[in-house]
Design a protein that fits this description.
The protein is α+β, with helices and mostly antiparallel strands. This is Transglutaminase-like superfamily protein. It holds the Pfam family Transglut_core.
């Protein structure tokens, strides 16, 4: 699934018609030549790819294709070297449904790090998820519940009912502690808080950036996954979209690992970002207490 100006794969006969189309358009004002890393392509496990196109331009002139790096859990990072000017990146992918499914998730998938190392990594505090600071709260609120899935379900319910979804209520510097103090945030804050409380309870949890058909207004979306009953189950405390339509982009400890764009060197300012995610047919209603595993 390499990166190219344009590439297509034939659809298999009799395949799943419940496809997904995702797009992202970015624009940067580049004041000094910059190195930019973007994570906007679906993860390798995000569904069978039928076509993808990545077009890069500076002041309207085409740029050479970027370098693609493999990130954890099938993620794809594209490294761009951009000269001064107005930089534009336009991405589109057409893929089959990467539908979450109930039941155990396969372990030992080729290319994954060992699961015991995953669990260790996602138990530790991280930049936006200072789980060691909220152990007292987590134990007081959820410690009386049976371990594992009952605690995760209670965490998701607690966040959904206690935290208000308010557009623009937080900044890129806010951690889960800020969300607890203000009682409001957006999807990344809800996901960070879910990760933080789960880790404080001894449950491995990780942050996942996704495309989300059905989201209004349309944007990138964030959910979290918790390790229970031998699987990474996906949870969305915002309950704003059906998990059935989610397309994995990037997975990590928190938003620092999954940012859609990061300026690594030089000077560049994000001017605009537009995201779309559509699905063929109707998205079903989601019972958010049901088990689901994201592809």
């Amino acid at each position: 699934m390499g990166v190219l100006a344009g590439r297509e794969w034939p659809r298999p006969a009799g395949g799943d018609d419940r496809g997904r189309v995702v797009t992202c358009d970015l624009a940067f004002d580049v004041q000094e030549p910059a190195d930019i890393a973007v994570q906007i392509a679906p993860a390798e496990r995000g569904g069978r790819m039928h076509a993808e196109r990545l077009e890069l331009a500076i002041d309207g002139a085409p740029l050479a294709p970027p370098v693609e790096l493999a990130a954890p859990h099938g993620g794809r990072i594209h490294l761009l070297r951009v000269p001064r000017g107005l930089f534009a990146a336009s991405y589109r992918a057409d893929l089959d449904s990467p539908r979450p499914r109930p039941g155990p998730h396969p372990t030992g998938v080729a290319g994954d790090e060992p699961l015991d190392l995953q669990r260790l990594t996602y138990l530790r505090p991280s930049r936006y998820c200072p789980s060691d600071h909220v152990v007292g709260l987590a134990v007081a609120e959820f410690g009386a519940l049976p371990q594992g899935r009952p605690r995760v379900d209670a965490v998701v319910d607690w966040i959904h009912h206690r935290i208000g979804y308010v557009a623009g209520a937080s900044t890129v510097h806010d951690t889960a502690e800020d969300t607890l103090l203000t009682g409001q945030g957006v999807c990344r804050d809800f996901a960070h808080l879910g990760v933080t409380l789960c880790r404080a309870l001894g449950i491995p949890a990780r942050f996942t950036a996704v495309y989300a058909p059905g989201l209004t207004p349309m944007d990138f979306h964030a959910v979290f996954e918790a390790w229970t009953d031998g699987a990474w189950h996906v949870h969305d405390p915002t309950r704003r979209v059906p998990r059935d339509g989610l397309v994995r982009i990037a997975t990590g400890r928190d938003a620092a690992d999954t940012a859609f764009a990061a300026v690594l060197g030089g000077i560049a300012t994000l001017r605009s970002v537009e995201v779309t995610a559509t699905v063929t047919g109707l998205l079903p209603a989601d019972d958010h207490r049901a088990e689901a595993v994201l592809a």
